[in-house]
């Protein structure tokens, strides 16, 4: 069994220069049914942290890391441990797996309430190649005991690769520095680490990158809009700023990250934002599935957040997040402008379509991406980097490093703070008037 130490993933960190951010040839991003599992016969041990929706799927969306790992690793996959304080939930998902054709990956999986318990009882044979973290973000991304799973992994399982879900944390703003410390520890240890900003792995997104790179374009502007279908969001924590930290930090983070992926680092001091709040007339919603009166007023989330900022490059970005639509499907669009070009990504979650306008033609070319699976691509690239199987340096890439994801987290916090400042300023002005 080969244990990874220093590998390519951590060496290919993204830099502050947007054009040098890592990218993948879109023709290499293949859906599961067009690939075979990785070669080899030795076991590939994995530990799952969290037995929830991201790890085992739900009807809320296409995410399901266990399913993608099963396809990527085939019979080599051995889930040695599932860590979740909700032991019943963990046992129940394992029962279903053991009752299916992937039983060989789960028949010896042990359930633990905490990571410490697993480490204490871990045999040599059970040492993992990778740990997949899908616990809620308030339990990670910090240096504080109980919320420091990344540091625990670095200490007890040095050299073991880490995949961690977005956002890197949800916690007080003054803990963003904890994230930077964790990033440094990961970097110093040369640990392979990938963060689950899966939109970066969309074929459409990589085609946008390819057009920018091949034509040596400089991004002038990014425009992002994310309208969620609030009727389908039934988790009370999501509506409570004290728990999820608001819709930008928890959800809009995907588009804030995509903005940074194309625009580069954000001048944090330039961030300005306004919000439509729950207690303003236009902010009344008629189809919420939770009882908002149970959430203290100061913790209720904004219905609209509109932000603008400058990138360090000089380019300008904007983002509007809306808690406005009903039904199930979200409505999301992301545009990038450069001299002569507009690249518009529509519906990235459901059925991605890319509209390309380029010099010489005022009409847009439409490219549809019917069978894309960014969740598989991010897992597939992560495993390929661990296995170090490709000689070709362009082959596999981790597109979201921990440090880069901390910057996205910092950016989302800056937007939240800017809306709160704008609201306070407005209230002050109305008192004076
Ligand atoms: N990339 C995406 O599109 C996407 C989609 C869904 C979820 N996510 C992310 O995945 C993460 C988990 O979300 P989810 O929907 O699976 O949540 P969930 O509530 O369905 O599951 C979380 C699980 O973690 C367990 N848990 C709580 N504390 C824990 C701890 N300290 N250690 C281990 N397990 C713990 C809970 O008991 C629960 O079973 C979040 O960060 C979320 O943002 C990302």
From TrEMBL:
Gene3D superfamilies: Dihydrodipicolinate Reductase, domain 2, NAD(P)-binding Rossmann-like Domain
Region called Disordered, residue ranges: 1-35
Domain of life of the source: Eukaryota
Annotated ranges, domain Gfo/Idh/MocA-like oxidoreductase N-terminal: 44-196
Domain named Oxidoreductase putative C-terminal: residues: 200-341
GO MF term list: nucleotide binding
Name this polypeptide is given: Oxidoreductase C terminal-domain-containing protein
Lineage, highest ranks first: Eukaryota, Fungi, Dikarya, Basidiomycota, Agaricomycotina
């Amino acid at each position: 069994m080969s244990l990874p130490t220093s590998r390519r993933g951590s060496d290919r960190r993204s830099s502050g220069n947007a054009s040098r951010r890592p990218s993948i040839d879109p023709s290499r991003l293949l859906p599961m049914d067009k690939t075979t599992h990785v070669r080899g016969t030795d076991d590939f041990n994995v530990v799952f942290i969290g037995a929830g929706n991201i790890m085992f799927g739900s009807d809320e969306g296409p995410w399901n890391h266990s399913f993608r790992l099963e396809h990527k690793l085939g019979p080599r996959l051995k889930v040695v441990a599932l860590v979740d304080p909700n032991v019943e939930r963990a046992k129940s998902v394992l029962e279903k797996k053991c009752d299916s054709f992937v039983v060989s990956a789960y028949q010896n999986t042990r359930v633990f309430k905490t990571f410490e318990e697993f480490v204490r009882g871990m045999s040599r044979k059970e040492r993992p190649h990778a740990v997949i973290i899908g616990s809620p973000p308030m339990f990670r991304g910090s240096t504080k005991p109980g919320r420091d799973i990344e540091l625990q992994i670095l200490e007890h399982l040095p050299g073991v690769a880490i995949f961690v879900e977005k956002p890197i944390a949800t916690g007080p703003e003054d803990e963003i520095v904890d994230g930077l410390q964790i990033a440094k520890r990961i970097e110093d240890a040369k640990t392979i680490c990938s963060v689950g900003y899966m939109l970066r792995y969309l074929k459409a997104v990589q085609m946008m990158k390819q057009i920018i790179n091949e034509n040596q374009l400089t991004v002038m502007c990014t425009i992002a809009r994310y309208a969620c279908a609030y009727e389908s969001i039934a988790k009370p924590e999501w509506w409570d700023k004290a728990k999820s930290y608001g819709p930008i930090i928890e959800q809009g983070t995907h588009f804030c990250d995509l903005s940074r992926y194309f625009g580069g680092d954000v001048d944090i001091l330039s961030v300005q934002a306004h919000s439509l709040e729950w207690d303003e007339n236009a902010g009344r919603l008629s189809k919420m599935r939770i009882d908002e009166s149970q959430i203290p007023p100061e913790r209720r989330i904004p219905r609209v957040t509109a932000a603008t900022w400058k990138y360090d490059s000089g380019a300008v970005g904007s983002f509007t997040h809306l808690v406005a639509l009903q039904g199930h499907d979200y409505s999301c669009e992301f545009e990038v402008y450069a001299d002569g070009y507009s690249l518009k990504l529509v519906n990235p979650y459901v059925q991605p379509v890319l509209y390309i306008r380029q010099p010489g033609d005022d009409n847009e070319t439409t490219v549809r991406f019917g069978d894309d699976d960014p969740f598989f691509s991010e897992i597939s690239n992560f495993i390929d980097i661990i296995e170090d199987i490709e000689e070709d340096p362009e082959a596999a890439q981790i597109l979201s490093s921990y440090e880069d994801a901390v910057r996205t987290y910092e950016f989302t916090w800056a937007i939240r703070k800017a809306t709160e400042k704008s609201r306070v300023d407005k209230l002050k002005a109305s008192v004076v008037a």
